[in-house]
From TrEMBL:
Pfam families in the cross-refs: Aminotran_3
Record lineage: Bacteria, Pseudomonadati, Pseudomonadota, Gammaproteobacteria, Vibrionales
The protein's Enzyme Commission number: 2.6.1.11
Necessary cofactors: pyridoxal 5'-phosphate
Native species: Salinivibrio kushneri
Domain of life: Bacteria
Chief location of this protein within or outside the cell: cytoplasm
Protein name: Acetylornithine aminotransferase
Keyword Magnesium included in the entry's annotation: no
Family per record: Belongs to the class-III pyridoxal-phosphate-dependent aminotransferase family. ArgD subfamily.
């Protein structure tokens, strides 16, 4: 990094809208599961750009796909189609329940498309009265006004004036509450098959099946938000595939592009027919550059050794966290599946997740939080055992510091 290219962290406060509070260091480059800042200091990455960098940084498969496509076509708009978009869509339909794909640029946009499709279907098939969207408290579905309203965290949706209407929130994992409330007015139930931002909360046995059955009984659609759980994160390509429960609509993003912005809404042929020309759209959605990279990522992630390796790495993480907890006794449990894991702090350490994140950063380790009480880990799906062990050593030093006060 030459001196004239170096930027200071204080520039952020001078030029950026203050909706983030980023770390003091500024990353310069990454390779695999390691990142180096402008000073040349090295960090181990257990955060993966919030479950995005599923193949780590600068994976050759991604670099090659980007470089090759960069010499051909970057953007066309949807006045035309393009080969990478069609190849990727074919792959996604082969790998899932879906027959049809709509491309967007993010998880929020994929969820927005899912919600608009559900409302459109209900209106055209059943009439205006069938418009209720049911979602779950602590759920997270993006930051557009519709998706943030459907998300069950008022802190993110309050303060912007009147919200989109006919959205109901019920407790996650409470089958009785859903059975009591759902009706013929319900258009769709939207949920994460494993809650991410809300604290890495897995579904209890039978919950997903019960939701599916209640949706079928009341002729409502089931929308799975797999933005964080999808693309191999939990050890199957989509998390729903292990549950035996199929949604009607699925939203995917984050790991789909391995770091390049892309999202997709997947659905059936029957439902897709309601999205006629002009009903919905996206200027950048499905652009050839993003789709070429995503196709390469999907082909790599779906290799059996990569998916099998996710479960192996989950165990390495759990073993490392258990060893740390044996010494310091700060976690009540480790929740989640595959490489979407959350270490929940016990009563004595409530509200201290961010302190651990900051201390970890000082030790050269990048982690995340999921609310004030959960330290979240969403690393590369191909992170090496050596990087996990070194990361755990740094996490232990960070926790020792926090415990020592």
């Amino acid at each position: 990094m030459t001196m004239e290219h170096k930027v200071e962290r204080k520039l952020f406060d001078e030029v950026m809208v203050p909706c983030y509070n980023p770390m003091p260091m500024i990353p310069d480059h990454g390779k695999g599961s390691r990142i180096w800042d402008q000073e040349g200091r090295e960090y181990i990455d257990f955060a993966g750009g919030i479950a995005v960098s599923c193949l780590g940084h600068c994976h050759p498969v991604m670099v090659d796909a980007l470089t090759e496509q960069a010499q051909k076509l970057w953007h066309l708009s949807n006045v035309m189609t393009n080969a990478p978009a069609l190849r990727l869509a074919k792959r996604l339909t082969e790998l899932s329940f879906a027959d049809r794909v709509f491309y967007a640029n993010s998880g929020a946009e994929a969820n927005e498309a899912a919600l608009k499709l559900a409302r459109r279907w209900a209106k055209e098939e059943h009439g205006e009265h069938k418009s209720e969207i049911i979602a779950f408290t602590k759920g997270f579905h993006g930051r557009t006004f519709f998706t943030v309203t459907v998300g069950g965290q008022p802190a993110y949706s309050d303060g912007f004036g009147p919200k989109p209407g006919d959205v109901t929130h019920l407790p996650y994992n409470d089958i009785a509450a859903l059975a009591d409330h759902i009706s013929e007015r319900t258009c769709a139930v939207m949920m994460e098959p494993l809650q991410g931002e809300g604290g890495i909360v897995p579904p209890e046995p039978g919950f997903l099946q019960a939701v599916r059955e209640l949706c079928d009984k009341h002729n409502a659609l089931l929308i799975f938000d797999e933005v964080q759980t999808g693309n191999g994160r939990t050890g199957t390509f989509y998390a729903y595939q292990e549950s035996g429960v199929e949604p009607d609509i699925l939203a995917t993003a984050k790991s789909l592009g391995g770091g390049i912005p892309i999202g997709a809404m997947l659905t059936t042929e029957r439902l897709a027919a309601h999205m006629k020309p002009g009903v919905h759209g996206s200027t950048y959605g499905g652009n050839p550059l993003a789709c070429a990279v995503a196709e390469a990522v999907v082909n790599e992630v779906t290799k059996p050794d990569v998916l099998d390796g996710v479960m192996e790495r989950e165990q390495w993480f759990r073993d490392g966290l258990e060893a740390i907890n044996d010494k310091y006794g700060i976690f009540s449990e480790v929740r989640g599946k595959g490489l979407l894991l959350g270490a929940a702090l016990n009563q004595d350490w409530e509200g201290r997740a961010r302190d651990i994140l900051v201390a970890a950063g000082e030790e050269g380790l990048l982690v995340l939080v999921a609310g004030p009480n959960v330290v979240r880990f969403t690393p590369s799906l191909v992170i090496t055992k050596a990087d996990i062990e070194e990361g755990m050593a740094r996490l232990e030093r960070a926790i020792a510091k926090v415990v020592a006060g």
